């Protein structure tokens, strides 16, 4: 396969178990049987073998339904991918509860961890201990929290305890939908809440919106794709129509610019692929792990303005 430009792949295999039980978890939880674990392991091996066999520049973000990084097979997969010459970045969403010593075997310059702190499931001290381990290992990571009001105290503690270089993101708590206006929150957040959250996370405003994207050009399906355990390729996790299969036929034939057919896009893993936002200017190589390290991170005002303008862009009226 020879691709014209670097491609980001969001991989989500069948694994859906988790060692936590967050009340706000969007995913259904279950305990896998040995056969289901084997199925997940086979899918993961097939995917990593495929990545290893490529020559074009690739980046991979694991976005599991549950917690995968407690499983040695995912640790080994990330370590293996990080050592491939054509692999630019490998990242994973994790609750950071698993052991981290395996990272000593990885090319840590390419690994990024998207770590979420879940109050009620783990103590702040234990979570911060894991962050210190990452700092000692020289592994890049972001830390985030779901922005429920009951988490505000933990957010303040996290911000004061984490090293200044660690980005602390807040996911807007989208109870009943956030509407489409700047800082919209269906009344969930007060003005004082928004001021607090904007002070914690300079990019919080970006996450408060549901971007009206129907008819808008999006890099999902061109510079980024979603792949499941069977190899089914989709534009992103939010559009179900398959483009094809990773393991049959040339991938480059599936990649092309397309307008979005969905009404709204509201998750970081989706809207960062909208070219209008130029998210790479803020995130740089940390885009997939949600680690802002691009040239506009020092002053993200232009990014916030681009996001506001996207809210007022003319929209197509029907799905294609
Ligand atoms: S850690 Fe993540 S996957 Fe696990 S229960 Fe909490 S929100 Fe769900
Ligand atoms: S705008 Fe969002 S929903 Fe639409 S294609 Fe892009 S990532 Fe997918």
Automatic annotation (TrEMBL):
<dbReference type="InterPro" id="IPR050377">
    <property type="entry name" value="Radical_SAM_PqqE_MftC-like"/>
</dbReference>
<protein>
    <submittedName>
        <fullName>STM4011 family radical SAM protein</fullName>
    </submittedName>
</protein>
<dbReference type="InterPro" id="IPR013785">
    <property type="entry name" value="Aldolase_TIM"/>
</dbReference>
<dbReference type="InterPro" id="IPR047771">
    <property type="entry name" value="Radical_SAM_STM4011-like"/>
</dbReference>
<dbReference type="InterPro" id="IPR058240">
    <property type="entry name" value="rSAM_sf"/>
</dbReference>
């Amino acid at each position: 396969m020879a691709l014209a430009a670097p491609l980001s792949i969001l991989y989500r295999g069948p694994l859906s178990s988790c060692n936590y039980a967050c009340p706000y978890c969007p995913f259904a939880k279950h305990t896998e049987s040995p056969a289901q674990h084997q199925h997940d392991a086979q899918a993961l091996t097939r995917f990593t073998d495929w990545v290893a066999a490529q020559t074009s520049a690739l980046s991979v973000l694991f976005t599991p339904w549950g917690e995968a990084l407690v499983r040695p097979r995912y640790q080994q997969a990330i370590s293996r991918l990080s050592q491939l010459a054509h692999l630019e970045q490998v990242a994973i969403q994790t609750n950071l509860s698993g052991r981290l010593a395996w990272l000593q075997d990885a090319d840590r310059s390419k690994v990024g961890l998207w770590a979420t702190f879940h109050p009620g499931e783990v103590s702040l001290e234990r979570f911060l201990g894991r962050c210190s381990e990452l700092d000692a290992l020289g592994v890049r990571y972001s830390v985030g929290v779901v922005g429920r009001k009951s988490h505000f105290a933990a957010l303040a503690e996290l911000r004061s305890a984490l090293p200044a270089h660690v980005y602390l993101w807040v996911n807007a708590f989208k109870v009943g939908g956030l509407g489409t206006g700047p800082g919209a929150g269906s009344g969930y957040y007060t003005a004082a809440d928004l001021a607090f959250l904007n002070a914690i996370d300079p990019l919080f405003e970006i996450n408060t919106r549901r971007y009206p994207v129907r008819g808008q050009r999006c890099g999902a399906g061109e510079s980024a794709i979603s792949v499941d355990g069977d190899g089914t390729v989709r534009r992103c996790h939010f559009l179900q129509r398959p483009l094809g299969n990773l393991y049959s036929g040339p991938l480059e034939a599936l990649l092309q610019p397309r307008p979005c057919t969905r009404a709204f896009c509201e998750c970081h893993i989706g809207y960062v692929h909208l070219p209008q936002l130029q998210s790479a200017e803020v995130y740089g190589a940390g885009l997939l792990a949600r680690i802002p390290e691009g040239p506009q991170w020092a002053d993200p005002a232009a990014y916030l303005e681009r996001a506001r303008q996207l809210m007022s862009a003319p929209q197509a009226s029907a799905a294609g």
